[in-house]
């Protein structure tokens, strides 16, 4: 029986393994988005205005997530996961590296605009994970560009 480690990207360094890990987690998130609204509603939680003296638990969930938007988000997440998975195994390919890098830029721009412009989310547990992953990955990929990308 093969070891699970044999399936990890063969390239040196931790970046390809990180990208691989994030891809697997993202595929799980995609499946989750199709099965339940709950996880996507935690990310896109809306802005909850609770009047003074009113218990927060009595205010309706302001999340703008619908079944369709959750599935759309799941599909978008699956596509980015597939691109990143290919990049993890082809980390020295400039086009694959660039495509993966762009997925993190687009994700970062999306989540920040949903928070700061559109108000469909707020800073908290649901937004922190995607924001930290996108930011960390962008910085890491940018800083390691010349190490991995072979012209």
UniProtKB/TrEMBL annotation:
Membrane topology annotation? Multi-pass membrane protein
**Residues spanning the membrane:** 99-117, 123-142
Q: Name one GO biological process term.
A: sterol biosynthetic process
Q: Which domain of life is it from?
A: Eukaryota
Signal peptide start-end: none
Main subcellular localisation: endoplasmic reticulum
GO CC entries: endoplasmic reticulum membrane
**Keyword line:** Endoplasmic reticulum, Lipid biosynthesis, Lipid metabolism, Membrane, Steroid biosynthesis, Steroid metabolism, Sterol biosynthesis, Sterol metabolism, Transmembrane, Transmembrane helix
* The UniProt record lists the keyword Transmembrane: yes
Q: Cellular location of this protein?
A: Endoplasmic reticulum membrane
- Presence of keyword Iron: no
A GO MF term: protein-macromolecule adaptor activity
User: Could you say which protein family the record assigns here?
Assistant: Belongs to the ERG28 family.
Which named protein is this?
Ergosterol biosynthesis protein
Q: Which organism is it from?
A: Aureobasidium subglaciale (strain EXF-2481)
Q: What is the lineage of its organism?
A: Eukaryota, Fungi, Dikarya, Ascomycota, Pezizomycotina
């Amino acid at each position: 029986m093969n070891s699970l480690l044999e399936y990890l990207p063969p390239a040196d360094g931790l970046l390809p393994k990180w990208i691989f890990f994030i891809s697997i987690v993202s595929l799980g998130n995609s499946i989750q988005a199709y099965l339940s609204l709950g996880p996507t509603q935690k990310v896109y939680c809306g802005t909850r205005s609770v009047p003074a003296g009113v218990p927060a638990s009595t205010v309706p969930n302001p999340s703008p997530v619908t079944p369709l938007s959750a599935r759309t988000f799941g599909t978008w997440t699956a596509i980015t996961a597939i691109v990143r998975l290919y990049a993890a195994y082809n980390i020295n390919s400039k086009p694959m590296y660039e495509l993966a890098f762009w997925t993190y830029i687009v994700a970062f721009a999306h989540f920040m605009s949903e928070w700061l412009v559109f108000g469909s989310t707020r800073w908290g547990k649901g937004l922190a994970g995607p924001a930290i992953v996108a930011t960390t990955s962008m910085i890491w990929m940018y800083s390691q560009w010349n190490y991995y990308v072979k012209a």
